[in-house]
Design a protein that fits this description.
Elements: E1 2-8, H1 27-41, E2 47-53, H2 60-74, E3 78-82, E4 94-98, H3 102-118, H4 121-124, E5 128-133, H5 140-145, E6 150-154, H6 161-170, H7 172-184
Parallel strand pairs: 1-2, 1-3, 3-6, 4-5
Antiparallel strand pairs: 4-6
Helix pairs in contact: 1-7, 3-7
Amino acid sequence: MRKIAVIVGHNQISQGAQSITPIDRSELDFNSELAQVMLQKASDFNVEIRVFHREHQGSYRREILKVYGEVNEWDPEYSTELHFNSSVFTVSGSEVLSSGSRKSLRFAKLTQDEMVNLFDRKRSNRGDRGVKTRRQGRGALSLLSGNAPAIIVEPFFGSNRADCRRMNEIGIENLAIAYLTAMSKL
């Protein structure tokens, strides 16, 4: 059974992006529910997960170092941080960020493939934003602070009405199943 940490992005003070109708939720609220569904279904996929929540620490750096310190104490084989994207521009799609290590890249590719299939992004040949390596800049601290190979998943744009409608049609349970399917293939 794979042991995988699931980190809910953002915190009670800084809840992340706000999605538009029909989802109309912050990243924190949406991904907290997603993490609970994943936790309930994990054993069906031969995966053991533990959910970790980022807590406001006065600085982003302290927040990330604290939560990934807790993750390290649990000693998982992999970790994934849950998010969704947002932009002031009209942008759509799914992407996964990787630290660039071999295991992180493999986990990212498996997860991105599940997101592309779930959102039917292959059919439209649009919205597959791919796997992106981050060694510095936005997201890099989360990818590099833990001992386990890490990824950050951005399955849709909360600022894009079509992405939000599609996510609403898919349902949070099916999104959880897509994450767990990727994990089960590791």
